Amino acid sequence: TKKELPEHFKAYKHVWVFVEQERGQVHPVSWELMGAGRILADKLGVELAAVVVGAEGETVRNAVAESFCYGADLAYVCADPALADYRNEAYTAAMTNLVNTYKPEILLLGATTLGRDLAGAVATTLLTGLTADSTELDVDADGSLAATRPTFGGSLLCTIYTLNYRPQMATVRPRVMPMPDRVEKPLGKVIELPLGLAEADIVTKVLNFIPDRESSKSNLAYADVVVAGGMGLGSPENFQLVRQLAQAIGAEYGCSRPLVQKGWVTSDRQIGQTGKTIRPRLYIAAGISGAIQHRVGVEGADLIVAINTDKNAPIFDFAHVGIVTDAIRFLPALTEAFRKRLSAHSRDKLAS
Amino acid sequence: MHIVVCIKQVPDSAQIRVHPVTNTIMRQGVPTIINPYDLFALEEAMRLRDKFGGEVTVLTMGPPSAEDSLRKALTFGANRAVLLTDRFFAGSDTLATSFALATAIKKISDTWGAPDLVFTGKQTIDGDTAQVGPGIAKRLGLMQITYAAKVTEYDAAEGSVTIERRAEGGTQVLKSKLPCLVAMLEGTNEIRRGTMADALRGARAEIIKWNAKEAGVEDLSKCGLKGSPTIVKRVFAPSPRAEKAKFIEIPEGGSLPDALIAEIFTRQPALEADLTELARGF
Ligand SMILES: Cc1cc2nc3c(=O)[nH]c(=O)nc-3n(C[C@H](O)[C@H](O)[C@H](O)COP(=O)(O)OP(=O)(O)OC[C@H]3O[C@@H](n4cnc5c(N)ncnc54)[C@H](O)[C@@H]3O)c2cc1C
Ligand SMILES: Cc1cc2nc3c(=O)[nH]c(=O)nc-3n(C[C@H](O)[C@H](O)[C@H](O)COP(=O)(O)OP(=O)(O)OC[C@H]3O[C@@H](n4cnc5c(N)ncnc54)[C@H](O)[C@@H]3O)c2cc1C
């Protein structure tokens, strides 16, 4: 049902990426999106813009400057003290204002807690389509955005279009798109738009922000090396073998969903469709069967090693390297062998 | 107080199979359940009702068979159940879904009193978009708090609610005004069993059924496929990896762990030096 795009949408041009920043830090998903947006903009022959919303000051200035280094051609900025903390009302106002004024054809946001809260509100206010948690973005021959996402936990994929409305919106989860290279670039064109709201107009107030304890923060999504365990380990005590291997090689540890449901491991360690997506250089999965919901979270890994007693386990269909053995016996031996090999290297290096 | 809880009936996705030839979802015989995330919303709503008095209305949009989920919600202890069902709603994306639900909530409000709070789950296990909650909030002009972990304060006199919200890197404590839409995070409570009286009432109670017109929809073009800006163009199976895993076996005179490590570093040569660095940090 492709119709001619309504006249009032024809002015909508260019690709926008929402640059998510909070408490002094840009969420890396923004740069992953910038990489994906660059490809779309080049295919369409249009410009790629960063959209930075926040309180005036160093964080916003820095986010704008970095946007250019990650590939933006220009940046739209809405800076106001009322935007210091994320609040839906103020951020939705800023975003819809920018869109209605400068009219992008594509708008991409990270599927984070902030991005999902914002994207749904912005799309409804603009009465346009929004594809959630896309895993692939492309443009068709006629220039429409084709956003692909898993359906039913990943057993199938579907491609979704927003043909007759603008902007075409999509969210993408962290780590689904590769991180583009950062190239030092000078500041480009920056266009500012005032918020047009005063603090007094904003109903919701932030009473407090309690940061996660440092110890409970995991860098799982962005780790270089991840070791994970599944039901094959049989008990929470045996799951310690996974943590010990992870510690010996400086890796993060993770798990499949049933371990979280059983309360053996905290939910921030779950890998997969309803947990974290990871893209490590090395992923070691022990006693995990490789269900599709797990698979979609780990497919971006450069090297997948699976340890499983069942040589027909589905995980061997997508792992690169497989070992058919009892993980409970094998993990301590592997930890020891890694320790030996790596410390031997340390000694070599110290000696030389 | 009056609370509306939106629940969705979903296929129990652990049991969904895909037809190997046609790539279509085989729904026949797949049991349906209340979207598990919505049970946290329902329980939180009932706890507030038990504390402050009032009623909980559950609302779902779906096929006539979605009545089962509403009945289940009544047996847990909800006071009233509304089923929004009409072929005009078929094929709704999240924008059209939020339109239909928001319209029905207005009608609920006119019939039984304006809700102080509207609860949804964080997301569903089938569509999994987390977009319907924010959609309802915007359409009704409600305040919106998603990823809510806990309602810490409710002040009817002041018309305010204080909520702990899961945010990136921490917990945000937000104070907002009523009426407010709250999308509840999972694992925040446990759904009660419901009393014997609730079970009996749930089995017998009348489920209120509205079609589009009865719910107050004036413009049918905002419903279903017509009212959905997103279009699903293609459904396909992920392409299988060309080669299967290479199995490592115990080499003669060697050990399995050493063989694996050798394989890893052959495939990822730069990793060895980096791991040495990382491991030294421990
Ligand atoms: C909507 C939905 C979302 C989901 N989201 C996720 C998600 O995000 N992440 C996720 O992981 N799952 C998710 N799941 C669950 C998923 O479908 C699987 O049930 C789950 O991944 C299985 O976990 P597992 O592999 O640890 O356990 P199992 O499937 O029970 O597999 C255990 C494996 O261990 C092997 N084994 C047994 N003993 C040993 C031993 N001694 N040594 C070595 N191997 C051994 C067995 O051969 C088997 O392959 C989701 C499911 C649904 C329905
Ligand atoms: C595989 C698949 C992928 C899809 N992808 C998209 C997409 O990318 N973009 C898009 O716009 N639509 C999409 N849809 C359509 C979308 O699922 C439907 O619009 C659906 O009616 C609501 O969305 P959801 O299931 O994602 O709900 P969510 O937004 O995840 O649900 C959040 C909460 O809203 C409430 N809620 C949701 N639906 C109902 C209901 N029918 N009745 C009562 N309460 C409800 C529940 O409390 C729920 O916990 C997709 C559907 C499928 C099956």
TrEMBL record, chain B:
Tagged with keyword Electron transport: yes
All copies of domain Electron transfer flavoprotein alpha/beta-subunit N-terminal, residue ranges: 22-219
Keywords: Electron transport, Transport
Pfam short name (any one): ETF
Function: May play a role in a redox process involved in nitrogen fixation.
Subunit structure as annotated in this protein's UniProt entry: FixA and FixB form a heterodimer.
Similarity remark: Belongs to the ETF beta-subunit/FixA family.
Protein name: Protein FixA
Organism this protein belongs to: Xanthobacter agilis
